[in-house]
Write a structure and sequence with these properties.
The protein is α/β, with parallel strands linked by helices. It contains ten helices and twelve strands. It folds into two domains: about 120 residues, Response regulator (Rossmann fold, 3-Layer(aba) Sandwich), CATH 3.40.50; about 100 residues, Winged helix-like DNA-binding domain superfamily/Winged helix DNA-binding domain (Arc Repressor Mutant, subunit A, Orthogonal Bundle), CATH 1.10.10.10. α5 packs across α6.
Length: about 300
């Protein structure tokens, strides 16, 4: 038999939240969702949280319990419609439908008690550092260059959620579900307004941390490494020193003179005249000479 603490908005018996509990031998204690009472919970073996109706409030309560160092398993009581809103960020060990049978509820309680608790949501409680931006989920503060940003609760939650998943693109509907809660009935324009306010508070130098993916949604662009102004002069001076210490370049004439000179290209040899061509040329010359010699004789005989 285990000590079970049932947290619910309705101050009533456990039968109105999870009727199967009345058929189990566990001792059940019902407590409201007053934030002051959640900080110092009574001694218990298991916490069951009523998340049947107000999912947004239940999600905030679950995160508050983990932030305060809940050391016992947490089980959520939900309806079938609320299953789509459950994520790992709730920090719950398990869930159970409000209409579950006593055998199922007993099995889930038994398994939850048998599995050791890993210290709550330690990963979600760790500070998120992105360049000069540091987000502390426990203290609910966001600092840029050491200066605390004046953010509203939803602005902080939106910035924290985006910074925890750098490079991942989220649609406006997804951001509404994760930051505002699945049962939020406002339009996606709410996300655009909060993104615009966040960018204004980050300033013109860091407003590009929240990037827009056209026709899709938003993503967190991790800041690129930039060379600091303190190291820039040192880098330039080091470069100048290297240039000054480099050996002087040799004159151009010396470089050309040092190049190996190849042998001069020989003049092309005269083409040899074939013997047949030489004989034909000699016969033609002889005939021409004979013709010139007979011309004066012909004139004289006339």
């Amino acid at each position: 038999m285990a000590e079970v603490l049932l947290l619910t908005v309705a101050q009533s018996n456990s039968a109105s939240v999870l009727p199967a509990l009345d058929f189990l031998p566990h001792r059940v204690r019902v407590q409201g969702l007053d934030p002051s009472s959640l900080v110092d919970l009574p001694q218990t073996d298991l916490v069951i949280l009523d998340a049947r109706k107000d999912l947004q409030s239940a999600r905030a309560t679950a995160r508050l319990l983990n932030a305060t160092g809940l050391s016992v398993p947490l089980i959520l009581v939900v309806t079938e419609g609320g299953l789509t809103a459950l994520t790992a960020e709730w920090g719950a060990r398990d869930f159970v439908l409000a209409s579950a049978s006593p055998a199922e509820v007993e099995a889930r309680i038994r398994l939850a008690l048998a599995t050791p608790v890993m210290g709550g949501q330690e990963e979600d409680d760790e500070a998120i550092a992105q360049g000069h931006l540091v987000i502390d989920p426990v203290a609910y503060t966001a600092k840029l260059h050491g200066h605390t940003l004046d953010l509203t609760y939803k602005e902080f939650e939106l910035l924290r959620y985006l910074a925890a998943h750098p490079g991942r693109v989220f649609t406006r509907t997804q951001l509404l579900q994760e930051v505002w809660g699945y049962d939020y009935y406002g339009g996606t324009r709410t996300v655009d307004v909060h993104v615009r306010r966040l960018r204004a508070k980050l300033g013109p130098e860091y407003d590009q941390l929240i990037g827009t993916v056209r026709n899709v949604g938003y993503r967190f662009d991790a800041p690129k490494e930039r060379r600091s102004a303190d190291t820039a002069p040192d880098d330039v001076s080091d470069l100048d020193d290297e240039l000054l210490e480099a050996p002087p370049a040799e004159p151009l004439d010396d470089l050309v003179a040092g190049l190996p000179m190849g042998n001069p290209r020989p003049a092309p040899a005269a083409e040899a005249t074939p013997p047949a061509a030489k004989a034909a040329a000699g016969t033609t010359a002889s005939k021409a000479a004979a013709g010139r010699a007979t011309r004066p004789t012909a004139r004289a005989s006339r």
